[in-house]
């Protein structure tokens, strides 16, 4: 790493109060907010109070800010503003899609074996209510060899209406070849069209993205992980074609147009039909500020290049330790570096002991491992310190 780029990164690192006095490796759980984001949120609350809080001036300002936030997100995803609905988090976006599809008894949903329990729970409830069948395909085993596209193709059935998968697997850090998977699903010759819902918890804010190019139908994400925005604001991308295939199940005044008597006329024509009602709008201002902050460091491609440079550095250092076994046998393609401890210490105990020493990591249950996440602003010395402490086990 060149010293000039290190000093720039050091300056960025200092802008995160949450990164001070610790070595933080939990970006995949929650990103820390830059000072600028916290200030923007405070200023937004102050403005709302000074001007209203309910006034035509504030209401107009809210509309402008929501549009600007959708716009900032859309630019990051290579998409247009109309395709983005603001939500609260990843799970809320997945719920919009899962409850919005007109399920028929006998339909089939395909999940991978690396999905988040919150999403699996909703899929199971859909299955229970509508007589939909679920199956799970073994993607985890393709981390180091094998073909995830082939696995998914093998599990598609004539009635597979939806495939639910994560772009970056939250446990192993594997990046799935999403474009190829989408193509395989869309060209599947079944009795119903097969759509793809992506859990983008670990990809938005970390991978450079062009969603229209990937061809994905639904892409649900959050601002509070790799974007380092406030908890409570996320979004859902829907391709214009996919938008026409689902209906709001849980709706409200933000999603409708009204007639001259003030009564509901229709759902809005674009993705905003899935936004519901009053929200903590200043948090949207915060997410926009976080996106802007990252841009000042570099574009999404540059940030991703630094993320994988960092994860390779950490992975290499960990791979040399006799008591550590990284799940990946080659350098990771994401900022998630998962490893097992060969020593006789439970992972949870290790993570708790590390936290007491100022190192923030997490455990995962399946596969049983520890996950360290690195972002573009992670410093080499933080990774060195972590490698050193793990070497001393
Ligand atoms: C893959 C994955 N999906 C879903 C979630 C839940 O995210 P949210 O709380 O934003 O809904 C997480 C959070 O850790 C995750 O890693």
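Sequence proposed for the structure above (393 residues):
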């Amino acid at each position: 790493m060149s010293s000039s780029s290190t000093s720039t990164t050091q300056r960025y690192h200092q802008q995160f109060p949450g990164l001070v006095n610790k070595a933080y490796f939990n970006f995949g759980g929650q990103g820390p907010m830059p000072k600028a984001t916290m200030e923007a949120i405070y200023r937004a609350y102050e403005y709302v109070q000074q001007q209203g809080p309910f006034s035509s001036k504030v209401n107009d300002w809210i509309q402008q800010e929501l549009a600007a936030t959708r716009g900032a997100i859309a630019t990051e995803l290579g998409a247009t503003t109309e395709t983005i609905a603001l939500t609260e988090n990843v799970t809320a976006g997945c719920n919009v899609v899962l409850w919005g599809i007109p399920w028929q008894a006998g339909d089939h949903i395909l999940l991978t074996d690396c999905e988040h329990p919150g999403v699996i729970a909703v899929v199971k409830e859909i299955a229970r209510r509508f007589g939909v069948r679920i199956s799970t395909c073994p993607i985890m085993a393709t981390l180091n060899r094998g073909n995830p596209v082939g696995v998914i193709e093998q599990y598609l059935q004539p009635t597979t209406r939806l495939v639910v998968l994560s772009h970056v697997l939250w446990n192993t850090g594997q990046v799935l070849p999403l474009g190829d998977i989408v193509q395989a699903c869309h060209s599947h010759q079944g009795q119903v069209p097969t759509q793809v819902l992506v859990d983008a918890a670990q990809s938005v804010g970390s991978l450079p993205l062009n969603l229209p190019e990937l061809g994905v139908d639904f892409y649900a994400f959050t601002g509070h992980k790799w974007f380092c925005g406030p908890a409570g604001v996320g979004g859902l991308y829907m391709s214009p074609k996919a938008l026409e295939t689902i209906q709001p199940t849980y709706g409200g005044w933000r999603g409708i147009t009204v007639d001259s008597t003030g009564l509901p006329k229709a759902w809005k024509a674009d993705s905003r039909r899935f936004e519901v009602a009053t929200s903590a709008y200043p948090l949207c201002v915060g997410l926009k500020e976080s996106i802007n902050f990252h841009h000042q460091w570099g574009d999404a491609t540059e940030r991703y290049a630094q993320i994988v440079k960092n994860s390779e550095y950490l992975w290499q250092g960990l791979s040399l330790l006799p008591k550590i076994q990284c799940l990946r046998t080659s350098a990771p393609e994401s900022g998630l570096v998962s490893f097992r401890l060969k020593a006789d210490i439970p992972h949870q105990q290790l993570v708790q002991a590390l936290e007491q020493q100022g190192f923030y990591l997490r455990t995962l249950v399946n596969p049983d491992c520890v996950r360290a996440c690195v972002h573009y602003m992670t410093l080499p010395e933080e990774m060195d310190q972590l490698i050193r402490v793990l070497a001393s086990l």
